[in-house]
Amino acid sequence: MDIEEFFETMPFADLLGVEVTEAEEGHAEGRIEMREELSWNADRLMAHGGVTFTLADTVGGAALVSLVDQPVPTIDMRIDYLEAGTGDLYAEADVVRQGGDVGVVDVDVYAADDDTLIADARGVYKTG
User: Fold this and answer.
1) Triad 67, 71, 76: Cα angle to 5°
2) Which of 47, 82, 104, 128 shows the smallest number of beta carbons within 10 Å?
3) Measured between alpha carbons, how far is 46 from 8 in angstroms, rounded to an integer?
4) What domains, with CATH codes, occur in the chain?
5) Exposure string (b/e) for 37-73, b if CB count within 10 Å is 16 or more?
């Protein structure tokens, strides 16, 4: 399975502009270019929490797909927002546990301009 292509052709991720840039051996990375339509603030470019969440969820799923080579529906995801994302964002994800039926992935989301950690998340995905 071409993981990057799989996630880039996912309609919702494609709509937002989520790009998976790397996915191998339980690790994935991805990015999203910030634009007006993704902001929650009309006066200042600030990523809506749903945009940050979708980036984390997509990249987290890609990390696990790199190990199981099949789609992995999200069971649960918890995210802590630490800073406002005011520009392009990138995420890095690592599989914490790959079980028979579920996998657990930790994801960090950063501001691309200065590497500030803006959110951390833990996702649980169905693998079997």
Assistant:
1) 90
2) 128
3) 23
4) 3-126 (3.10.129.10)
5) ebbeeeeebbbeeebbbbbbbbbbbbbbbbbbeeebe
Kindly calculate the radius of gyration of the chain based on its CA atoms and give it in whole angstroms. Answer: 14
CA dist 7 → 42, 61, 82, 127 (Å):
29, 9, 26, 16
Q: Which amino acid is residue 51, in one-letter code?
A: V
Secondary element (H or E) of residue 88: none
> Which helix (H) or strand (E) segment is 13 a member of?
helix 11-16
Q: Residue 23 — very low, low, confident or very high, per pLDDT cuts 50/70/90?
A: very high
122 closest CA partner among 82, 88, 94:
94
To which residue do tokens 């501001």 refer? 111
CA separation for the pair 33, 113 (Å, rounded): 11
Answer whether 64's CB lies under 8 Å from 127's CB.
Answer: yes
pLDDT tens sequence across 56-77: 999 999 999 999 999 999 999 9
